[in-house]
Request: fold
Amino acid sequence: MNETFFALTPERVLESVEEAGFAPSGHCLQLNSLENRVYDLRLEDGAHVVAKFYRPGRWSVEQIQEEHDFLFELAEHDIPVIAPLRFSDGGSLKEIGGIYCAIWPRRGGRPADEPNDEDMLALGRIAARIHNVGAARPARSRLQLNASAYVRAPLAFLESQGFPPPYLRERYQDAALTIADLYDRLSADVPILRIHGDLHSGNLLRSDSGWLFLDFDDFVSGPAAQDVWMLQPGHDAYALRKRALFLEGYRQFRAFEDHWLKLIEPLRAMRFIHYAAWITRRREDPAFVAAFPEFGTDDYWEGQCADLEQQYNVVVGEDPELATEPDDSEPELTNKDFFWDWEDKPRE
Reply:
C-alpha cells in the first residue's frame, strides 16, 4: 500500500478526484506536505479544490473521520476553519486504491508572517473558542497528548529500531524518562480537551475576512498549553510578551490558569522525542530522506541528548522543587496503627 502512496502521479490524482465525483480540468499542482500528499486542482468550472491523500497506516478511518467531524463542529460555531467538502453520499472521506482521500475548498490568504499585538489578541480569542468547542465532548479515537504516548511509546519504538546509537542510549533514555516523569507530575490536575495540537504559524492564514486556522491533521486530546506555546515558541522577552497578549485575548472567552504554563517546557521536550520517532517511521519515504539528511547520525543524536538535558534544566530552573523526587515511601508504622485504643503517655 505504501508503494501506491509513494507512486501517486498527477494522472492518478486526477483520476481519483474524478472518481470522487468532481470534474478536474487537468491542472494539478503538488503542495508542500511531508506527511500526506496534497494537491491543488482546478475544476472545469474554474473553481479550485485541494485533494488530500492520507498516508496509509498513520490514522485509522475513525481517527480521520473524527478530524473531519471536529472541523464541521467548529465551522457550525462560526470559527474560522476550513472543513472538507462532502461527497454526493454525504460523507467527507473516500477510499480510492487503498488510500483515503478528502477534498477541501481552496481558500485564499497570506502567511502569518509576524502577528502584531492586535493579531495576538484576536488569535487568542479564536483559540479559546476552539477550545470551548473542544471541551464540549471528549475525543473518541484520537491520541491523547501525554507522557505515555509522546515519550514512553516513541522511546520504545526508537530503541526497537536501534536508535540512538548504543553509546548514547542510556543518556537519551534517562533524559527522556525524566522529562516524562516531570510531565506526569505537572499535568496531574490539568484539564484535557480536544485541541489543534500543531498550532504553529505555518498553520495560519490571514485572509481578507480575518484569520484562518488550518491543518487539524494532528489534532489531539491534550492541555490547552500545547496550543499556547507552539504559536509563540520563543523564550525571550519579545516572545513572552506576545504570549501574554495571546492569553489576554484567550481569557476573554475561556479561563486559563497561570500554573498551566509550567507544562510548556516539558511539552517542548516531549515534542523532540515524538518528532524523532515520527521521522524514524518515515525512513522509507524518499521525501523524508531528502528533508532530513542528517537524521540518524551520531551528531544528530548527540544534539538530541543535549537538547533534552537543556530542557530538563529549564524546567527545574522554573521550579527547583521538581529536581527532587516526590516522597512516595510508606510512613513508618507505630503502635497506634496496630492498637486502636493505644494512647501516648508521657514518660516518667
Notes: The chain has twelve helices and ten strands. Residues 166-186 form the longest helix (21 residues).
